[in-house]
Amino acid sequence: MIASRIDEALPSLEADGGARPAIEARDLRKRFGDFEAVRGVTFDVMPGETFGFLGPNGAGKSTTISMLCTLLKPSGGTALVAGHDVVAARAEVRRRIGLVFQDTTLDDYLTAAENLSFHAELYGVPKHLARQRLQQVLEMVGLWDRRDSITRTFSGGMKRRLEIARGLLHSPRVLFLDEPTVGLDPQTRLHIWTYINELKRREQITMFLTTHYMEEAEYCDRLAIMDNGVIVVTGTPEELKAGIGKDRVELRTDDDELARRRLKEVFGIEAAGGDGVVFQVEHGEEFIPRLFASLGVGIRSVSVARPTLDDVFMEHTGRTIRDAESSGSGIRNNPFVRAQAGRR
Amino acid sequence: MATGTATLDVVPVTEARASWGDALRAVRVVWKRELIRWSRNRTRILTTLVQPVLFLFVLGSGLASLLPRQGGGLDFRTFMFPGVLAMVVLFTSIFSAVSIVWDREFGFMREMMVAPVPRSALVIGKCLGGATVATIQGTILLSLAGLVHVPYNPLLIVTLLAEMALTAFTLTSFGVFAASRMQQVESFQVVMQLFVFPMFFLSGAVFPLTDLPRWLDVLTKIDPLTYAVDAIRRAILSHVALGPGSSNLAHPLTWGHWALPTGFELGIVAVVGLALIGGAIAQFSRAE
């Protein structure tokens, strides 16, 4: 019995040594019937890193996270999380990860502390550690005073914070956050991020999160931009923005349709559709005078901005993230996938 | 061999070594949650008791007036008492069990399903929790025994508690099994109408199962609750003084001419319960 303990302990100690990635995904794929939601993604997340998956709804982010969390079986490829294979060593992976889902998974009839105790027992946190840890995580998310309140009485933001606390309770090596701020108002979202950033400071933890909010992606150490089931580019937010080297120009004109056509004819620039005319160009300020001289369409307003992650997305996919969402190839809207997710 | 492990900061719990501990902990915590949820819901505690009390004192008293008065005979309400005990156990068990469907709807199921514990432990914890709650509800109703001439005999009470617990376990297992195949909250109504009410009315809870038409007789014998109700009734009647005229209400359950022993009846209930919980475990382990 003891021998097997040592055998088991050694390889994972090695895995936790810091040199090996906390997450290693190799050509990970997921197919639902005829629809391939994830079409071969490969990436590493190093220990201590906050790694973000950015992309529109339906890009395959949630499906990827579900595979890494052992909730979905990959149709192809492999993934190691905290040194363990997500298919072959599911229980080992589960013990070492924390999960915060998009939808709440709290018991509304229990108090905050009871929800956490339930979790601590399911994950086998020793009793004496559990009490101390419970206080620690509740204080971190500012809910220690509300520990004996029934969770039904909590606001959306409080529930999400409680879920983050619960995800951390068993001291996981990797915390997965699937759209941690979706459905919350901007102020609450900012709050959640304050807590997440605090977490980075206080805990030795690797975080993997998905988001479709550009401004939130900025908080990540490294990003992978995902679209249509593939990773289009990976890098730090700075690298990604620097890689574009172009400014974003937004126009309001008398006739957007005509303006787009003229841009193409005169300057060879493809502008994105939707609200107004948006395009990218090098040295934006210098381009504006030429634009006024040659466009031939009444211009009402112009704004030039340094590249944002939205521009990065546009650069690599040819669409703004909002367009990508409204075009709705959404896996989330796929009833089959929804039913699948419900079964887990 | 033991040296060396002590210095490790984080000793990963290996599955082979810890699965029993993990499983037992999971059973206990799921069981405990069931009790907490039950104790929080006072209205539910009350409302599940109202219906049996109505049956016993309103329907029971009404039907009693139809029956010819027999000197020293069995009071119809005494006859019905096992039936309403089974009734409260039945409805509480099913209600606890199908809360799984709500857990799924509101996401809590996911919290349980992703935990590093065997699914079977979750199912067993759920069944034991529901069974405990149902037995407690049955016990509350049992406190009214004196009103229907059932004595508060310690041996009788212990017997009844054990029989109710077994019945509750089987019924909760049935509910969990049904819930494991349900995707929507609406399906709950279907289960109630298609299984729970027929199970109750066929069980002999409200009328004696003697001299029934052939088709009805067959249906009552298929109903597992019939055997539970009869076992509870045998226990109660053995502690009630019976006059000569009450024989029709006091007949034991028979297969043909064979009067079933109580132990055999309880055996049937237990086997059905184990089969159902086995089915439920299989269902939940498959949904991976």
What are its keywords?
heterodimer; A: 344 residues; alpha/beta; Alpha-Beta Plaits; 2 domains; 4-stranded antiparallel β-sheet; elongated; B: 288 residues; mainly alpha; two-stranded antiparallel sheet; disordered N terminus
What does this structure look like?
With 344 residues, chain A is of the alpha/beta class. Chain A has 2 domains: 2-235, Rossmann fold; 246-306, Alpha-Beta Plaits (2-Layer Sandwich), CATH 3.30.70. Helix content of chain A is 42%, strand content 23%. Chain A contains 14 helices and 13 strands. Chain A has helices spanning 2-15, 61-68, 90-95, 112-122, 127-140, 156-169, 186-202, 214-217, 237-244, 256-267, 284-294, 309-317, 321-326, 335-343, and strands at residues 23-32, 35-45, 50-54, 76-81, 84-85, 97-100, 174-178, 206-211, 222-227, 230-235, 247-253, 277-281, 299-305. In chain A, the strands form 3 sheets. In chain A, strands 6-7-8-3-9-10 form a 6-stranded mixed beta sheet, with helices on both faces. Chain A has a 4-stranded antiparallel beta sheet with strand order 2-1-4-5. A 3-stranded antiparallel beta sheet of chain A has the order 12-11-13, with helices on one face. In chain A, helix 4 packs across helix 5 and helix 5 runs antiparallel to helix 6. The longest helix of chain A is centred in the middle third of the chain and has 17 residues, at 186-202. By secondary structure, chain B is an all-alpha fold. Helices cover 72% and strands 1% of the residues of chain B. Chain B has helices spanning 15-40, 42-66, 76-105, 108-113, 119-142, 154-180, 187-202, 214-222, 224-237, 247-250, 262-286, and strands at residues 254-255, 258-259. In chain B, strands 1-2 form a two-stranded antiparallel ribbon.
